[in-house]
Amino acid sequence: MKKVMLLMIGVLLTLSLFSCKEDKPLVAYNYNYYDYMNTFITVNFMTYDDQTAASYESHIVDMLSMYHDLTDNYRDLSIDSTYLENIYSINQKIGQQLEIDEPLYRILEEAKSVETLTDGYFDITIGKAIDVWKALIEANYDNNIIPDVNYHAALDTINALDFSLNGFNLSEIDGHYYIQTQGENTKLDLGAIAKGYATQKISNYLSSEGVKYYFINSGSSSLYLALNSNVDRDYFNIGLTCPICDQSGTYGTVQNVMNQSVTTSGDYEQFVLHNDLRYHHIVSPVTKMPMQYYHTVTLIGDDAGLLDALSTALFSMPNDIFNAWMDTHQNELNLSYIRFNYDETITQSLLGDLVFERN
Questions:
Q1: Inter-residue contact 222 to 307 (CB < 8 Å)
Q2: Angle, CA 90 vertex, CA 85 and CA 91 arms, to 5°
Q3: Average pLDDT of 107-136?
Q4: Judging by DSSP bridges, how do beta strands 214-218 and 27-36 pair with one another?
């Protein structure tokens, strides 16, 4: 699953995008955040005056702060926090029924829904397996290569983890919200959905305030692109970073994106090598291993939170299961995808006016 720094998408955006299309002058406002969800977030929108922009920005900060605190699985809530529990505190109380705040309940509800939708390929309870591979990635081995002894020790740890009893139940009683986890190897990790979920909430808020021209870039792997204020076009063109190039660059461009999210899961920012294969941070709930089917999976669709979770699930699906899943769900979910396969071929299926051009 994704956690902190994820796949870099080269976003082909400049300040020239903010030429005014409307009679009343609009002003571009750009805000950068470094303190939320362990990543870099940019929100760029157009409105009429500083006071309105400040009001929007205050609301955005409140949302980011809330989702950061509630979904954090590394630290407990601060002493003065008004929230009931967060992911870290829930993980310390496996088996207990705990009252939680509605925003956390809703994101957990979404995670459970995606688990069902993907036949278990999305599973937020496998945090202990993620921790094993994360430790290898962060070990700073020579030439980024896992020594055989460390690789096999990791496999022994993984094989000892029984996830068959993992799970959590959600309930709502008289306006109060509860979670109860089960399974001694359960460790919740919302890293594969939280950032996209917050991105979508910010988008919903800006749209509800009548903002037309904006984009949100969350860690460069989860984007939401509304309308482009460029006088020549409403749409955005998005460059997709090459996952196998020695130097940073794009392997292609998605054209005609507007009022949609673009989300990518990939293996090249966080990985170590063993027998020339990349072992990365996206762990399959089925095998408890990082899989080597694709280098990147990019999804374009309507909901950044859903896409964040789906890109993680699809990344761990073998080609035949991926294709069968898309045959069933692509049109109903309005999903487009571009897959950079492990053999360096590209597979794509785009809906509507979207176009992909390879460099």
A1: yes
A2: 150
A3: 98
A4: unpaired
